[in-house]
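Write out the 3D structure for:
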Amino acid sequence: QVQLVESGGGLVQAGGSLRLSCAASGRTFSSYAVGWFRQVPGTEREFVAQYMRSGFTTYLYYADSVKGRFTISRDNAKNTVYLQMNSLKPEDTAVYYCALGTNTRRMTRPEDYDYWGQGTQVTVSS
């Protein structure tokens, strides 16, 4: 059974930074692609970033809205994936979810992923 637990959300002023963590149990991240999504109530879940490793190559994908501000990374020893969020904007306010997917390709749709965490709230004040 795979369990994902996100943490690190909170309230921050515009221009500030937060680092989200996604810790996995039951599987190691090395076998999966890991994605971060976000969702505002009443809207669809939106792709934010993806980390994928195939052989010796690491692939990182970002939504255009966060490119240059957010960085996804992985710590194999801790079986944890991070989302470093800098230069935060009020429009980044959402519940952020991490997810695991078994395919090794670029995946930006929620249905591409097999396991989900419970989410962590990020609120950016203006």
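The longest strand covers residues 46-54.
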